[in-house]
Amino acid sequence: MTSRRATTTLWRPTGPEELDLVRALDWKAWPPRLPEQPIFYPVLNEDYAIRIARDWNVKHSGVGHVTRFEVDTAFLARYPVQQAGGRTILELWVPAEELDEFNAHIVGAIELVHTFR
After folding, report:
1. Domain 7-116 carries which CATH code?
2. Predicted confidence band at 2 (pLDDT cuts at 50, 70, 90)?
3. Helix H segments across 14-82?
4. Around Cβ 1, how many Cβ atoms within 10 Å?
5. Under 8 Å between Cβ of 61 and 76
6. What three-state secondary structure class fits 63?
7. How far is residue 100's CA from residue 78's CA, in Å, rounded to a whole number?
8. Most CB contacts within 10 A, which of 5, 33, 52, 84?
9. For a pLDDT cut of 90, what percent of the chain falls above it?
């Protein structure tokens, strides 16, 4: 009998450049952060990701995307949930230097679920 490890669904609002890098990584990992990006922040609900992609990414890049992906739940316990505003504005703050390890705990592929123009 095989047991499946528990996963948590996360979302990430992305602009076109980041999505191109995810595509180049075969939808399996997030690209390294730029020097001015010390934290990688996936969000805990789709609605919040949609609002960022639609209201911020489109304004700044002309297009915004929402991705969805699964991460090993036990691994995520090291990152306390951050409330970045209202009660549904929930994020995880992953230090840039831990992103490779975070990527190693992604289960399955990163999926593109919404695009806004």
Report:
1. 3.20.170
2. low
3. 16-24, 46-52, 58-61, 73-76
4. 2
5. no
6. coil
7. 15
8. 52
9. 91
